[in-house]
Specification:
0% strand, single chain, mainly alpha
Length: 102
């Protein structure tokens, strides 16, 4: 003879689907707003665009500075570079020039 010790619940068959639903909900929330989710992807794309623009600006600035250094470096100084350096060193300007102080 066999006796039933444990009475079966009406909702026992819903335990596994409920746990699965909780996990799927967690992963769905993480896909949307987690650290590597779709919202973070948009933020990373915006940051990448800002940094790329800054890199372009700095590259242009560096090329200009390298060009100026090359004018001073190769031994043949140009007349306007010498004039600019002497005016800055002596703090002088011509009467017909406009001086902007920083």
């Amino acid at each position: 003879m066999r006796t039933i010790q444990k009475r079966r619940s009406r909702f026992g068959f819903l335990i596994v689907p409920a746990i699965t639903g909780v996990f799927l909900t967690y992963f769905a929330v993480q896909v949307q707003g987690g650290r590597y989710g779709t919202l973070a992807k948009d933020d990373l794309a915006r940051t990448l665009a800002e940094r790329s623009a800054e890199q372009e600006r700095l590259t242009t600035q560096r090329q200009k500075l390298e060009q100026r250094v090359q004018l001073l470096h190769d031994g043949s100084l140009e007349r306007d570079m010498i004039d600019e350096r002497t005016r800055r060193a002596l703090n002088l300007g011509a009467p017909d020039e406009v001086v902007i102080l920083r």
